[in-house]
Amino acid sequence: MENKLKTHALGKLRIYIEPTHKVRHGERSLFRKLFPKSAYLHIISDAKKDGIMNASVYQTHSGYSNQGAIQQFSAEGDNSKLTLCIELIDSRERLEAFFLKHTQLLRSKVVIYKEVEFWDTE
């Protein structure tokens, strides 16, 4: 028996953010006041809560975002300004809803949407 390729249209949302970007809302315990949660961890956590199909964070080795200075990975230096890429995959509608829910957090960030195909077999 031969498998047939089955495709579905999905979307990919890429968010470029610095690891030093923190979230200062939500739970305001003393611990969170002293050590605010990283925005990229907050985005991944919310994506899971919202039922987004796939969420990943990729570290870059070199680059810049939003016309900022070029940053480069260094084993001996500070990498806190080296851009991270958060990638979310789901339907366009769900990604749009997620983006609109997080408009304040994503303001002035580079956010890219692209249509992709999801492959499966019958």
Automatic annotation (TrEMBL):
Native source organism of the sequence: Olivibacter ginsenosidimutans
Similarity section: Belongs to the UPF0166 family.
Pfam families assigned to the protein according to its UniProt record, in alphabetical order: DUF190
Highest taxon, organism lineage: Bacteria
InterPro entries xrefs: N-reg_PII-like_a/b, N-reg_PII/ATP_PRibTrfase_C, UPF0166
Protein's UniProt name: DUF190 domain-containing protein
